[in-house]
């Protein structure tokens, strides 16, 4: 008996969907089991330390002896280094599952490899920030390391504290309840361009370097950016104008225009971006698109120039500073400590 191809395809589609869902559930269950095991291993180690009143030297010897015995009995996965992180996992997340308001909670959406990187972070607010970011942007461990290395948490907190410009439009859907402004980076760190300090930089060179490293640039920009193209041409009154980089933000559902400036920001740059945004609003937006957003990426800008030039403009124009080299992380960390210290005093 010949079975209709359409029926077979429907059956294949249903089985495929079921198998894929089962794989996700299985992976989640395995990850949950690993985290549960490691958290409780850490709990048992800490309990013995307290019971026996171990000092640091005794705890060190305990982990060495325990690693040797567990490795013999259970196999790999219980090296001294792993046990150190299991112990720290419990100590940092001891409020997991409790009603403690400010306690860190364990997420089964995050792998043990992610947690090892998170446990290297000193401040609980930093762990909380990166935890949300991993889930929201499905970051790989490599991407997480990159953000931590470039002090993303410190830059976001300090840039929000400046309140130099309005927030980007808020975003909320079934996958994310974060606002794009939650991931505001100031400055954008473009160290991955590997531009030597003695290079005579031009806007063309900067643009080409960004295009050559587009994936890393989008990672630095934040979640939701899809590249449309470079040097996007617009014909206005018989003249051709070009915007350096055009993206489409698939969460905000709008075009994002990026203009690069290497010699600081001039008031004409803001007027030019305003024209570009009006063009896209009238000529390129389709049904369902929101108003386009303009980002002027500059190495510096004056506050008064921005304030006066933006007066009366209703379009969404924002500014990002960029730097070609990694920030001084120690300096940023000190500023963060001061920020939270002042915050506590205000309470």
Per-chain topology:
Elements: H1 5-52, H2 56-74, H3 80-92, H4 112-118, H5 124-137, H6 141-149, H7 152-162, E1 188-189, H8 203-212, H9 214-221, E2 225-236, E3 239-249, E4 254-261, H10 267-284, E5 293-298, H11 303-310, E6 316-323, H12 329-346
Helix pairs in contact: 1-3, 7-12, 10-11
Write the CATH architecture name of the domain at 188-326.
Answer: 3-Layer(aba) Sandwich
Strand fraction band?
A: 5-15%
Net shape? globular
* Main pleated sheet: 6 strands, mixed
Uncertain segments are: 96-102, 162-183
Termini Cα gap: 77 Å
User: In CATH terms, what is the fold-level topology of the domain at 188-326?
Assistant: Trna Endonuclease, Chain: A, domain 1
Highest-level CATH class of the domain at 188-326: Alpha Beta
- Estimated radius of gyration: 25 Å
**H/I helix tally:** 12
How is the quaternary structure best described? single chain
Q: Which strands sit side by side, in order, in the main sheet?
A: 1-6-5-4-3-2
Give the helix proportion (percent range). 40-55%
Q: Structural class, from helix and strand content?
A: alpha/beta
Question: Can you count the beta strands?
Answer: 6
Report mean pLDDT, rounded to a whole number.
Answer: 80
The string of secondary-structure elements, in order, is: HHHHHHHEHHEEEHEHEH
Description:
- Among the domains are: 5-100, no CATH class; 188-326, Trna Endonuclease, Chain: A, domain 1 (3-Layer(aba) Sandwich), CATH 3.40.1350.10.
- It is 53% helix and 14% strand.
- The protein has 12 helices and 6 strands.
- Strands 1-6-5-4-3-2 form a 6-stranded mixed sheet, sandwiched between helices.
- Helix 1 (5-52) packs across helix 3 (80-92) and helix 10 (267-284) packs across helix 11.
- It is globular, with a radius of gyration of 25 Å.
């Amino acid at each position: 008996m010949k079975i209709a191809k359409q029926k077979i395809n429907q059956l294949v589609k249903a089985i495929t969907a079921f198998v894929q869902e089962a794989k996700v559930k299985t992976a989640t269950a395995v990850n949950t089991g690993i985290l549960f095991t490691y958290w409780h291993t850490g709990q048992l180690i800490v309990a013995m330390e307290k019971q026996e009143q171990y000092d640091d030297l005794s705890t060190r010897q305990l982990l060495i002896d325990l690693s040797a015995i567990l490795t013999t009995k259970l196999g790999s996965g219980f090296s001294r280094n792993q046990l150190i992180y299991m112990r720290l996992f419990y100590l940092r997340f001891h409020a997991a599952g409790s009603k403690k308001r400010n306690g860190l909670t364990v997420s089964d959406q995050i792998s043990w490899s992610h947690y090892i990187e998170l446990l290297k972070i000193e401040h609980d607010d930093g762990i909380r920030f990166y935890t949300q970011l991993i889930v929201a942007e499905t970051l790989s461990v490599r991407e997480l390391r990159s953000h931590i290395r470039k002090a993303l948490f410190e830059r976001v907190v300090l840039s929000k504290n400046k309140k130099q410009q309005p927030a980007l439009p808020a975003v909320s859907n079934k996958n994310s309840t974060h606002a794009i402004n939650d991931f505001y980076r100031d400055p954008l760190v473009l160290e991955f361009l590997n531009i030597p300090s003695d290079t005579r930089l031009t806007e063309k060179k900067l643009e080409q370097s960004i295009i050559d490293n587009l994936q890393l640039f989008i990672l630095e920009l934040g979640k939701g950016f899809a590249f449309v193209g470079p040097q996007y041409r617009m014909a206005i009154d018989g003249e051709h104008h070009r915007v350096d980089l055009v993206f489409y933000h698939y969460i905000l559902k709008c075009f994002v225009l990026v203009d690069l400036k290497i010699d600081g920001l001039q008031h004409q740059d803001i007027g030019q971006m305003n024209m570009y945004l009006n063009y896209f609003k009238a000529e390129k937006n389709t049904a369902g698109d929101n108003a386009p957003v303009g980002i002027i990426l500059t190495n510096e800008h004056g506050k008064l120039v921005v304030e006066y030039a933006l007066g009366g403009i209703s379009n969404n124009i924002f500014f990002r500073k960029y730097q070609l080299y990694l920030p001084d992380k120690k300096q940023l960390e000190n500023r963060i400590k001061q920020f939270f210290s002042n915050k506590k005093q205000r309470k």
